[in-house]
Automatic annotation (TrEMBL):
Highest taxon of source: Eukaryota
Keyword Repeat found: yes
PROSITE patterns assigned to the protein according to its UniProt record, in alphabetical order: PPR (PS51375)
Domain DYW stretches: 501-594
Protein name: DYW domain-containing protein
Molecular functions per Gene Ontology: RNA binding; zinc ion binding
UniProt keyword annotations, A-Z: Repeat, Transit peptide
BP terms from Gene Ontology: RNA modification
Originating species: Panicum virgatum
PPR repeats: 184-218, 285-319
Tagged with keyword Transit peptide: yes
Length: 594
């Protein structure tokens, strides 16, 4: 390739003669406004400065800032002798002004003109590819950077870490991150947020701790990403540590940092603490409001969610489509059918928002949980345009199972399997429906289909954090170093709750399991092992036990943990796939509405 390279951002000494010229001042006066810029351009041409490269560069850069990237591109390619500085500047301006497609256009113009590249041009175009999730183009840019000798430039490497993280290519991102010798806070932030945004919260926390050990000073973006990881992982101890550090360093409480703190406390089970932070924030954006509303919904406080939603409508920013998902979900989990109908109508009539699959799913879930199966089916047929997606039928199937409408359940399950034949969850639910209705011959047929197609169910697990260390338990888990003590404690606990009246709900899980798993079907579920471990390790404490479950908690574990909270006189919180369950004195906050 003919292109040469420049290691540092090029300067343009020829700008100086024009710095105080009337033409340059006219550009400054026009600012990032297209109309005045075009007038200033006309003055340049009339004054004979139409070919001035420094003035063209300034004009085109301001045009990008004005949102007229195509006009800026026309100015650049029309110049008789454009230089590297012109295209590199425009590439960076477009990338940082939120015009990633235009940044790629300027990059290609630089390539076509066979002009020298700089590190800041590659940094900008890598950012543009990240914003577009354009992995293939980004990989070509990466190869080009290596070819021109920029592969070891830490700014380029950092931008590439962001690119590969946003595109889900975390092993590549981590390899690049590890190769950066003198990592900036931006590089650390890119890796932490990359893991967090791809659902790998534990890895994000690991990088944050490594950053602390390296002595790097975090900034607000570091704390936002780390708090989001803590929310995802339920890492309350670290979340509190980050909160203390924000206070000790007197960091400005930005709207993003405030929203991250609210979300962390909501997701870690302390909804009242989240509300304290929410009320203290001087600035709240739509994310902050939505997080708090969703938090109330997850914890079963539907009336509080609706109350806050009404306050948002009066005093806060306009709710967006995600806000309405939070509101409708809160109504579904609290049985607030009338309020849910009203919110759904408001979404369309007042705010002009078009319902998405998530909104339809929440409405079906709301009707279904309330036992209004006919209303749910009517809503599906009358209100959802086109063919309903699998998420809608999944909500409907869950309602059929909950309210033991087996005939409708079979019909819905068969629709689901037709839509997603390779999804094992649908086959398992159909098997359950058949089993609960006593049609064991049909159960066998579904089992054979699962085996024949080699479909594998998602493996359930439960997490508990003790002393800042996460402990994971699956059904029948025996890899923990304290396995013998945990099992002994659980056996004693089962005897105690049995004496208190606990009777296993075998129907809730028995038919979801393969033959060889049935020995552990009830007693050794991950939730029970995690609770037993938590109680064993905190004997004498009154602090709540906090468990995170990746799937929906089963009926038997829900019943057993209610009894455990009573006999141990401890509050036990379980965050499952859909909501929080606060067990205390033998009762659950969900009031059996889950």
């Amino acid at each position: 390739m003919a292109n040469s390279s420049i290691q540092l951002e090029p300067s343009s000494p020829s700008m100086n003669p024009h710095h105080r010229s009337p033409e340059y001042n006219a550009l400054l006066l026009a600012g990032p406004r297209l109309g005045p810029l075009k007038q200033a351009h006309a003055r340049l041409v009339v004054a004979g400065h139409g070919s001035s490269l420094p003035l063209t560069t300034k004009l085109a850069t301001l045009a990008v800032a004005a949102g007229a990237a195509s006009y800026a591109h026309l100015l650049a390619i029309s110049h008789p002798a454009p230089d590297s500085f012109l295209f590199c500047t425009l590439t960076r301006a477009a990338a940082h002004r939120g015009f990633p497609a235009a940044a790629l256009t300027f990059y290609r113009s630089l390539l076509t003109a066979a002009l020298p590249f700089s590190s800041f041009a590659f940094t900008a175009v890598a950012k543009a590819c990240a914003d577009l999730s354009a992995l293939r183009v980004g990989m070509a840019v990466h190869a080009h950077a290596i070819l021109l000798g920029f592969g070891s430039d830490r700014f380029v490497q950092t931008a590439l870490v962001v690119l590969y993280s946003k595109c889900g290519q975390l092993p590549v991102a981590r390899k690049l991150f590890d190769a950066i010798r003198d990592r900036s806070v931006v590089a650390w932030n890119a890796m932490i947020s990359g893991y967090e945004q791809n659902g790998l919260a534990e890895r994000a926390i690991e990088v944050y701790k490594k950053m602390q050990m390296a002595g790097e000073v975090p900034d607000s973006a570091t704390f936002v990403a780390t708090l989001s990881a803590c929310a995802q992982a339920g890492a309350l101890d670290l979340g509190r540590e980050v909160e203390r550090r924000i206070g000790s360093e007197r960091m400005d409480m930005s709207v993003f940092l405030g929203a991250a703190l609210v979300n962390m406390y909501v997701r870690c089970g302390l909804v009242n603490k989240a509300r304290e932070w929410f009320d203290k924030l001087q600035e709240r954006n739509v994310v902050t409001w939505t997080s708090m509303i969703a938090g109330y919904g997850m914890h079963g406080h539907g009336h509080e969610a609706i109350k806050l939603f009404h306050l948002m409508r009066r005093e806060g920013p306009p709710p967006n489509d995600v806000t309405f998902v939070a509101v409708l979900s809160a109504c579904a989990h609290a049985g607030l059918v009338s309020e849910g109908r009203g919110a759904f109508a408001t979404m369309k009539s007042v705010y002009g928002l078009v319902p998405r699959a998530e909104h339809y799913c929440c409405m079906v879930d709301m009707y279904g949980r309330a036992g209004l199966l006919d209303d749910a089916m009517q809503f599906i047929h009358d209100s959802i345009p086109g063919e309903p997606g699998p998420e809608v039928w999944t909500a409907m199937l869950g309602a059929c199972k909950m309210h033991k409408n087996f005939n409708l359940g079979v019909e819905v399950a068969e629709r689901l399997i037709a839509l997603e034949p390779e999804n094992p969850s649908h086959h398992v639910l159909l098997s359950n429906i058949y089993a609960l209705s006593g049609k064991m011959n049909h159960v066998e047929k579904v089992r054979n289909t699962i085996i024949k197609r080699r479909l594998k169910k998602q493996i359930g697990y439960s997490l508990i954090e003790i002393g800042g260390i996460a402990h994971l338990f699956r059904m029948g888990e025996k890899s923990h170093p304290q396995t013998r003590d945990i099992y002994q404690y659980l056996e004693e606990l089962i005897h105690r709750i049995t004496d208190a009246g606990y009777v296993p709900e075998t129907d809730s899980v028995l038919h979801e399991l393969e033959e060889e798993e049935r020995e552990f079907a009830l007693r050794y579920h991950g939730e029970k092992l995690a609770v037993a471990f938590g109680l064993m390790m905190s004997a004498g404490s009154t602090a709540p036990i906090r468990i995170i479950k990746n799937l929906r908690i089963c009926g038997d574990c829900h019943l057993a943990i209610k009894y455990m909270s009573a006999v141990e006189n401890r509050e036990i919180m379980v965050r499952d796939k859909h909501r929080f369950h606060h067990f205390k004195d033998g009762k659950c906050s969900c009031q059996e509405y889950w």
